Amino acid sequence: MVANRIEKDRDTPTPARAWLVGLIAWAAPGAGHLMQGRWLRGALAGGAVWLMFFVGLWLGGHMYALGGGQQSFGAVLQLLPMIANVGIGLPYFVCWIANVGFAEHAQLVTYEYGNTFLLVAGLLNYLVMLDAFDIAAGRKR
Amino acid sequence: MRHVLWMAVFAALTAIVFGIAAKGDERQRFMYGLKVFAEFIVIAFLLGWILYFIPFR
To answer: What is the pTM of this model?
Structure first.
């Protein structure tokens, strides 16, 4: 039964709107649900991701950028956390341009908490983005 | 105490997103989110007590 459903889903073409919803959901956390009229889901998911992001910044966490002052292999090690941070969407690039949240504050007690909040906020937004995409593609209610 | 507070905030926000992304009706999602939150808290306290008895120095 599940195999049939997967086969059916594979045959159904993904509407172009779903890709747009996915892009908007990534760029602004919660917006993908809001533009589909899923107000409560959008507010809760978007609110949780935004709150986690701002709490992360407030706790003194920092975001990763490729290079980031590191040389050779050290720069490559920044890639995975950077991918997690980029998950937050446009706020990452706004912070990058404004040079906010990229400085390390290792002296703070809550520094590691902040880092974790920022990393997980981005990862959770990937999840929210996929949820919005699935709804737009008709794969989820 | 502050650490426990931040851990609880982290668990709550993560559980909200997990609950929303889960499948099922609203009640099932709510219960799943609640379960995720409880698991975060219980496992964190268990690990905390296990680490407390391990002499690191």
So the answer is: 0.88
